[in-house]
Amino acid sequence: MVSFDIHDHSNTGTEAIHVNLFSYLVKNDVENGEILPDLATDWELIDDETWEFTLREDATFHNGDSVTAEDVKFTLERVSSDETLQEYENYRQIEEVEVIDDYTFQIHTNGPQPAMLNRISRLGSGILPKDYIEENDWDHFLREPVGSGPYQFVQWAMDDRVVLERFDDYFEADQAQWDEIVFRSIPESSTRVGEVLAGGVDIAMNIPPMDWDRVESNEGTSVVEGPTNRTMMLVPNHREDFATSDILVREAIDLAIDNQALLDNLMGGSGTPSLTRVNPGNFGVNEALHDDYRFDPEEARAKLEEAGYADGLELTLHSPDGRYLQDRETTEVISGMLSEVGIDVNIDFMEWSSFVDLRAANQQEDLYLIGLSGSLWDAAHQLRHHSSMVAEDHIGYRNDEFDDIYLDAEVNMDEASRQQQYEELQTIADEDLINIMLFQADNFFAVSDRVNFEPRLDELWMVDEITITE
Amino acid sequence: MLAPCFLFWIPGVERMKKYLFWRVMQIIPVLLLISMFVFGLLYMAGDPVALMLPEDATQEQVDSLRASLGLDQPFYVQYFHFVGDLLRGDFGYSYRYNQPALPIVLERLPATFELAFSAMFVAIIMAIPLGIASATKRNTFLDIFISGGSVLGKAMPNFWLGIMLILMFAITYPFFPVSGSGSFAHLILPAITLGTASAAEMTRVLRSSMLETLNQDYVRTAVSKGVRNTKVVNLHAFRNALVPFITITFLQTSSLVSGALITEVVFSWPGLGQLLIQAINGRDMAIVQASIFMVAFIVIAMNLFADILYRVLDPRIRYD
Lengths: 470, 320
Known about the structure:
CATH superfamily of the largest domain in chain A: Dipeptide-binding Protein, Domain 3
CATH topology of the largest domain in chain A: Dipeptide-binding Protein, domain 3
Largest sheet of chain B: 2 strands, antiparallel
Number of helices of chain B: 12
Number of domains of chain A: 3
Number of strands of chain B: 2
Oligomer: heterodimer
Helix content of chain A: 25-40%
Number of strands of chain A: 18
Shape of chain B: flat
Order of helices and strands of chain B: HHHHEEHHHHHHHH
Strand content of chain A: 15-25%
Structural class of chain B: mainly alpha
Distance between the termini of chain B: 8 Å
Number of helices of chain A: 17
CATH class of the largest domain in chain A: Alpha Beta
Radius of gyration of chain A: 24 Å
């Protein structure tokens, strides 16, 4: 938890807490691929660049003010016009919010925005109380935030805890079932596990594999896992100076890696091998490429020979160390698998901030390991990174056919044909092996038997979905 | 420190004032040097923009954020801004928390002080009886046991001891909470974790200074006069052995404040340590600057205080 400024962070863990305090216009039920009403009860596309929404009339902020179209205008125009905010890039597509009456408003976009509803149901879309902020000031709001969600603010001790309590006038108050919720920040994993074992907390996240046995063997606690939107992958350098610019070498690498064996040996069998970084739950997923992988060491050797590396090949693989669950181990096992087919890997383990610098400066050598997610839940987000707008500078990859389809899809308001375009783009990405996909990663939680908890794909803490067992 | 040598004819109090003035004046360039050093290091480590945004942020996002934070400016421009702000007491804005850095750091100080002073208390109540016992029972099994224990106490890394104490006294035998803050019970395990190494150090110092005073003529005179043994130890030897002990106690305060950083992470104690470590990971420069500045200030102040106290307690020490 870094701030209550919903527009000036890009931290899923922070949003995971905000969703209990703030209501959104619409909610994205990513598991069922549906946009659900929240503050907005109805919405309609008036023309390609205009969306009209109707707000529910019984929603109030925690200070008693009604939630009106003016609050929506205040919120969305703040983030769509202030370039200094971290979320600006994700909202600048909104040109204006026009208030029709207290409970009706229109969003005018810069050009057609087919993913508009996904955009306003993600990080930064909680509706802020205009009057409360203007009467006090922004700093006061940051200290004592007011939203219109099921829980209201009680206390925030930075890097220690956030305490929320039930808001009795919430518009669906019957669903709010906890009197008080405490989110604690416990950075050290053994301490985090210790709290669950001792009964100090009911659910702890990011549990490393070395602690799974401790949690499972303890009476009254267990390990629960669930998928995330994060895909682990190798990013090859397509520039001519590097061997990985040859598709045959990329194919050899892909064929040499046993994706399922990585999961079986490092993640207790959890996670899903994949050939695309667009996971189910995202609009545009190509299901045929998910839950699939290629593994054929013989064929990999043949490809290397064909590429002229019959005597072996030496590659450098940069890897973060400690950023992702088992990242170091994943890199080591991959290196072993590649050496089996004749590729010698120089592993370059890096501390995260140096790794980030290396990427930002596009100075990587042959390959790097990374895990990438996508909070928009629309393939537009993930596939942009394969387009020349990003990939050309970063890895030296450019495919005009890919770019044409991508740019067309970005403004295509026809859902069915946009879906088809995204599926095609993922096929191209897979054939060209722009990136070499490994698997969709799971997250692991230590959970007390006191509660029923199922991890959400979007990793948000919707606490009313957690119930007491009895 | 040239000035005081010409001042031998000034009465003692005047000389002490002068000495104090120079010592305090020395703090300013030291602090400036420290913060410049930290600024240089952070600049070389790279800017925080890429770390603030998600892994797959676009170049436009990176560029626009970098420009809005002024990080696209050349080094010397950023440096002059920094020094200018620093002279006005402004450490800049925390990128991570979107607030001025200094108040955030100051807000965390009480928690770190609470932990450090509790650890100091633990260290003192452990060190005094152990140090005296070890010196008076010199070369006995007890002395060897205490001396061995001090070596062990000094050698155990904080984080390891913390995790072991959690395992023993919070999970296996749940006497204390595992982590967090808010009650007296929350303070005990972190205070023991942090205080142990200092207790070991202080025990060793007290032991050797006790041994030294026990061999002094006035102690032997007291013993030969037939003064009771406990009185000799408590009144004659211990009081005189206190001078180095008090000095080491104050010097330990500064290492306790810096040592609290690791202990805080293990116990999720919301002090300066947790803040600093998260700030370093996220390259939140303003917070790193302000935290290090603050820790440096405390260490310098404690050293100065120990120095002055030493001179007050032992009048034999001159100001030149």
